[in-house]
Amino acid sequence: MATAKMSVADVEEFLRREFPQAFVHDDVRIESADGETALLRQRFSERMLRPGGTVSGPTLMGLADFAMYVVLLSAIGPVGLAVTTNLNINFLRKGQPGQDVLAVARLLKLGKRLAVGEVNLLSGSSPDPIAHVTATYSIPNQ
Hints:
Layout lengths: L7 H11 L9 E6 L3 E6 L14 H20 L6 E9 L9 E10 L3 E10 L5 E10 L4
Antiparallel strand pairs: 1-2, 2-4, 3-6, 4-5, 5-6
């Protein structure tokens, strides 16, 4: 795969300008993105929890989708209209309340029109994923 076309600072600047709703609670931080992988952290908040005290599915899906978007932008540059065409998630274990959620994204294949990747979601400092995601993005003609 190619080297990064956007740094973390570039991706963040682009997203804050073009997709500001992603930062409405300012609880997601892009820790790294290098054109092949990305690491995002969502700080814990009560908004993340579903009844029973576990991290909700929509929280995990949203973070995973955003992590894929970040790693893709870092690889292809500022292409705002790249969109998710498929996202599959397997919930593996309960995310612990009170812990940040980490998204470790990796591009598996980057073509001219499609990108395929995976995201492992981790709770706190545990090395065991709480969910595994595969996603496909469509890349418009540039």
